[in-house]
Amino acid sequence: NYKANATDKKAYHYIVEGDGKIVEGKYKPEDNIDCKDGAYAAHALNHNTGAIGVAIACRKDTFTQPTRKQVEAMCELVASLCKKYEIDISKSTVLTHAELDPKRKIDINNIPCVAVYGTINVGEWIRNKVLWYSRK
Fold it and tell me: Is the pTM of this model over 0.70?
């Protein structure tokens, strides 16, 4: 429904709503430095330690697609997080769930609002847009 819900807030550090508004999750990125205590954002199965989870609130099914405002706000947010935490922008550091696990069906694997389709193309497009925002 393009709005962050309680489940999203527990699982992700940041959620971008349909209008581009950024909502903070329950946990801070620093909570994922060590996930052994159970108090962390569990956004990517077996890949949470040292990771920051950013979600777009839209994929309740395979038909609801992200808005242009969401995509832009997400990429700008990820660029600022990469700067803040000194994260290089690469395929191994900035990636979608679908790139991490190709079996995931409900993920950002198409961005019709910018005419980008397919898991690989979407990941590359996002990284390029994040790079662009990081240079602003």
Answer: yes
